[in-house]
Amino acid sequence: MSYVFPPPPTVALPVRGSSESFPVRRVYCVGRNYAEHAIEMGHDPNKEPPFFFQKNPDNLVVDGRFPYPAMTKDVHYEIELIVAIGKGGENIPAERALEHVYGYGVALDMTRRDLQGEAKKMGRPWEVGKAFEESAPTSEIVPAAAIGHPSQGAIWLKVNGEVKQKGDLNQLIWKVPETIAYLSGLFRLAPGDIIMTGTPAGVGPTKKGDVLEGHVDGVGDLKVEVV
């Protein structure tokens, strides 16, 4: 097959302990999946079914740098556990969902909060606030075969050495198996899909020169400089 121009390279994430990489197909993000974060964003976590938005595969970056984006004055950090899908499917039962997980990682869902807020007021999609270039600094993927399936443990983010976000994976409103089950009823999941599972309370603004350090117990760490 020939193309009118060279196709872009496949986005891939490094895999811990392997020379092979994890190719990324789609990036699904769960909104407001920690109760305290839902409350700080002005929502009642007890009344909402899960909802999703997407980032683009090429928003994922692994070089430890986050270039402060254009057209915004209010960029927020959101630390998250990510799930890497290794086996696809539709209408996956929650009790079988973890069989579809290849591994886990740590990522930041960087958000142009001012642009997202304007979109919310007008009932418009969030992509302008969420799916911009390099908006998802990401760690390596850690195979579930090596660490199991973490369902509890600390998740936190420090900014310039000060803890800003802190929670526990057991505080997820929609746990990983439930999220996969629900999402696979909306979309046909496939190997290479990434699910960003939501962020705990404490989101806030960042600026050039900040150093962001994220951690998920049993999974790993992520260090990013805002440039």
UniProtKB/TrEMBL annotation:
Pfam families (alphabetical): FAA_hydrolase
Record lineage: Bacteria, Pseudomonadati, Pseudomonadota, Alphaproteobacteria, Hyphomicrobiales
Residues annotated as domain Fumarylacetoacetase-like C-terminal: 27-227
Gene3D superfamilies: Fumarylacetoacetase-like, C-terminal domain (3.90.850.10)
Source organism of the structure: Propylenella binzhouense
UniProt name for this protein: FAA hydrolase family protein
Keyword hit for Metal-binding: yes
Record's keyword annotation contains Hydrolase: yes
Keywords carried by this UniProt record: Hydrolase, Metal-binding
Entry's Gene Ontology molecular function annotations: acetylpyruvate hydrolase activity; metal ion binding
